[in-house]
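Mods, move this if it's the wrong board.
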Amino acid sequence: MIVWLNGTHGAGKTTTSSLVQRLIPDSRVFDAEKVGETLMDIKPGLPWTGNFQHWPPWRPLVVETARRVLDYTGGTLVVPMTVLVEEYWREISAGLAQHAIPVRHFVLHADQDTLRGRIAGDTVLGPQSPFRLQHLEPYAEAARTWLHAEAEVVDTTHLTPAQAAERIAAAVKS
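Not the wrong board. Structure tokens:
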């Protein structure tokens, strides 16, 4: 099984994913961003798109990597990855379905003011991360048009990452 944690940048996916992993037996965290980083390391570089998710190889490589890891280890993969383009989500979820891999898709949601405050207070990536701030409106648009209808929404506005992880793990176990 895959537990996919979606949501905008700064929503707490990485922090929550490690906590979810501890609550679900026989689970591992698979950061699909590492697949994108591998593609970014190709020299000379692939045609510039501004985001590795726009490269056609990224999505099937995420599916294939997840499939291979699950074939090897079994259990559950917890995937903290923002996917805001509906077509990309459909491609990934269809690819996983072709391999009969069940997916529980969760969106970590918070209101815009909370997200801006979290980004500003981030001591790891630094305050006012331009990349993360640029994705707030695309996230809001995806949430309005398809994302919230496609996933189980966990409103983290007033939750700690541990509380969000407990809700996700309980939903997965039920």
